[in-house]
Design a protein that fits this description.
By secondary structure, the chain is mostly helical. The protein contains 5 helices and no strands. Helix 1 packs across helix 2 and helix 1 crosses helix 3. It comes from Acidimangrovimonas pyrenivorans.
Length: 197
C-alpha cells in the first residue's frame, strides 16, 4: 500500500488510481469533471479500497495522475512521428521563429519612427512657442510636459523591446524543446540529425 507524504496510508496504489482515471476518461468523463468524490467511489467499487480515503489528498493525486496520463498520451503522439517528419518539423520551427522575429522587428521599427517623428515635432513646436511670445508660457509648459510624456513613452517602449527580446528567448527555448523532442524520437529508434533551428 502506497504512503503519502504525511505517512498515512492512501488506501490505493498509483496504478489503481491511474487505471481508474483512464477508465473514467474512456467513459467520456472530462478530466475537469473528475472530482475526488467520483474517483473515490470508483476506487472503492473497482479496487475495493477503503472508503475512508481522504478526498483532500486524493484531489492532488488526481491532478498529478491526469498530468502523467497527459504526458503519456503526448509521448504516444510523439512516437507516431517518424524520420520523414524530422525535416519538416525543423523547417516549421525555423519558419515560425523567422515570422515572429519579422513581426516584432516591423513593430519596433514603426513604433520607433512614429515616436521619433512626434518627439521632433513637439520639440520644434515647443521651441517656436518659446521664441514667439512670453505670454504663451502656459502653453509652452503644457507642450514640455507632453514632450516629457513622449520621452517616457519612448522609455516604456524600450522596456517593451526588452520584453519582446525576452519573448524571443522564450521562443528559442521552445525551439530547443522541439529539438529535444526530435532527439527523443532518435532515442526511440528514429534516425536523423537534429540541426540547429
Amino acid at each position: 500500500m502506497a504512503k503519502n507524504n504525511g505517512g498515512r496510508p492512501k488506501g490505493y496504489s498509483e496504478a489503481q488510481l491511474h487505471e481508474t482515471l483512464e477508465a473514467l476518461l474512456s467513459a467520456g468523463i472530462a478530466g475537469a469533471d473528475l472530482t475526488a468524490q467520483l474517483v473515490k467511489r470508483e476506487l472503492v467499487d473497482r479496487h475495493g479500497v477503503s472508503s475512508s480515503v481522504d478526498t483532500r489528498t486524493l484531489e492532488k493525486a488526481i491532478a498529478d495522475g491526469l498530468e502523467m496520463l497527459r504526458i503519456r498520451r503526448e509521448d504516444r503522439f510523439i512516437a507516431e512521428v517518424d524520420e520523414a517528419d524530422e525535416s519538416p518539423l525543423r523547417e516549421l520551427a525555423a519558419h515560425i521563429n523567422r515570422a515572429i522575429r519579422i513581426t516584432v522587428g516591423k513593430s519596433r521599427a514603426r513604433h520607433r519612427e512614429m515616436l521619433n517623428a512626434e518627439i521632433e515635432e513637439q520639440r520644434d513646436h515647443v521651441a517656436e512657442l518659446v521664441r514667439s511670445n512670453a505670454e504663451l508660457h502656459a502653453t509652452v509648459k503644457e507642450q514640455v510636459e507632453r514632450l516629457r510624456a513622449l520621452e517616457e513613452e519612448k522609455a516604456a517602449w524600450e522596456i517593451e523591446r526588452d520584453t519582446l527580446k525576452a519573448g524571443n528567448q522564450e521562443l528559442d527555448k521552445e525551439c530547443h524543446g522541439l529539438r529535444a523532442q526530435l532527439e527523443l524520437l532518435e532515442r526511440m529508434g528514429v534516425r536523423g540529425t537534429v540541426e540547429a533551428v
